[in-house]
Design goal:
Aspartate Aminotransferase, domain 1; 12 helices; binds pyridoxal-5'-phosphate
Length: 401
């Protein structure tokens, strides 16, 4: 006699900042382009059809940030996009500009902190406050000192932090940088499609995006800028694709999926932001009410509607992530890096430096990130799992070294 298979347990996927599941619209568009094939540079009918799909996707990504589609350069992701434009020699709206120093906030993603094509000794870090917001006064002071030395700055400031969701005052910082003739890049990977960001609103010269953070396929991204802004030395030269800014045959299905995801996110942006803010509130209230020592990092700042970085004092994030995983709740440690290892978080360390909290105080930081596929049941599953795991792990006797 055969027994019916057990119903799969419900999984609460709360790791949209790591990667957001593929939206159904993006999946359909991706598969259709994959089936159709064609090289977007071929002149025959199949090539022209691929080109038409690619250009439609470019228009959809442009629509998300309200720019001329010619200002969208497709890349393999946001890391490549940052590398393409973090270079001292630039053209800004057709005007050659050479920058001397790259300023980055202390909480940038590692793909920006590396400085890419700037020499390492030309990369400087601007501190943040206890909530993780850039210290505008420190930025102003540094800009004034650089101007006095006749040096031109390039600022790279993210729109929203991937670990805490804290929003940065990009437009205010950009005004200050532009006032001294500098250039501004904004990594809007976590903000785009979640809050209303446009190139003009950010007052940035370059914005970089990643498809998979907004429900598109992995391995697709873009630089968004004025059509005549670029690095004078392309990261990848080659066959002249992407108006000479990025050589190599375009990954048309991935770009088409990116376009569909961008369109979907833009269409539902305000309703989704409201819905996710409600879910975030439900999660945060549940955490601080049921687990009394827990606190929310960056709670004093404006944040993304989808991100909660909760700190559970006395716990190790890695242990809690595993306990939650066993309870079918998928989250990341606040400090998880791309290899999946948990180290100390440079973001929480930078915030701690301003507020006097050492690394031990934030070792139990867990990031919950919601998205288009999240609902109340996911939040409630996470709260129930936390309610079981946190007291159990906290009551463990300390290991003797
Ligand atoms: N910038 C931020 C803020 C991110 O969160 C990430 C990915 O986690 C990246 C850049 C890199 O994106 P990609 O994986 O597309 O290179």
């Amino acid at each position: 006699m055969s027994t019916a298979p057990a119903a799969p347990s419900k999984v609460a996927y709360l790791d949209h900042n790591a990667t957001s599941p593929l939206r159904p619209s993006a999946r359909a568009a991706f598969l259709e382009a994959l089936e159709a094939g064609g090289n977007a540079s071929s002149v025959h009918a199949d090539g022209r059809a691929a080109r038409a799909r690619l250009e439609r996707a470019r228009g959809q990504v442009a629509g998300l940030l309200d720019v001329d589609p010619r200002g969208v350069t497709f890349t393999s992701g946001a890391t490549e996009a940052a590398s393409a434009i973090l270079h001292p020699d630039l053209e800004i709206a057709g005007r050659p500009v050479t920058c001397d120093v790259l300023l980055v906030s202390a909480v940038e993603h590692p793909c920006v902190l590396s400085g890419h094509r700037f020499p390492t000794d030309k990369v400087e870090v601007i501190p943040v406050d206890g909530d993780g917001v850039i210290d505008l006064k420190a930025l102003e002071n540094r800009l004034a000192a650089l101007a006095a030395m006749g040096l031109r700055p390039y600022l790279s400031l993210m729109a929203a932090n991937n670990e805490t969701g804290v929003l940065q005052p990009v437009a205010e910082a950009a005004e200050r940088v532009h006032a001294v003739g500098g250039v501004v890049h904004c990594d809007a990977v976590q903000a785009a499609g979640r809050v209303d960001v446009t190139l003009a609103g950010l007052k940035a010269d370059f914005v970089t995006l990643s498809a998979h953070k907004l429900g598109g396929p992995q391995g697709a991204g873009a630089v968004v800028a004025h059509p005549d802004s670029r690095a004078r030395v392309p990261l990848m030269a080659g066959g002249g694709q992407e108006r000479g800014r990025r050589g190599g045959t375009q990954n048309v299905p991935a770009m088409v999926g990116f376009g569909a995801a961008a369109d979907d996110a833009a269409t539902h942006l305000s309703a989704e932001a409201m819905r996710l803010t409600g879910l975030r509130r439900r999660l945060e209230t549940g955490i601080v009410e049921q687990l009394q020592d827990a606190w929310i990092a960056g709670a004093g700042a404006a944040r993304l509607p989808n991100t909660v970085c909760a700190v559970f004092p006395g716990l190790k994030a890695e242990t809690l992530v595993i306990a939650l995983d066993l309870a079918h709740v998928r989250v990341s440690a606040g400090s998880a890096c791309s290899s999946g290892k948990v180290g100390s978080s440079h973001v929480l360390a930078a915030m701690g430096a301003a507020s006097g909290l050492g690394p031990e105080a934030t070792a139990g930081a867990i990031r919950f990130s919601l998205g288009w596929s999240s609902g109340e049941e996911d939040v409630d599953l996470a709260l129930a799992a936390l309610g079981r795991a946190v007291p159990r792990l906290s009551s463990r006797p300390a290991r003797v070294a």
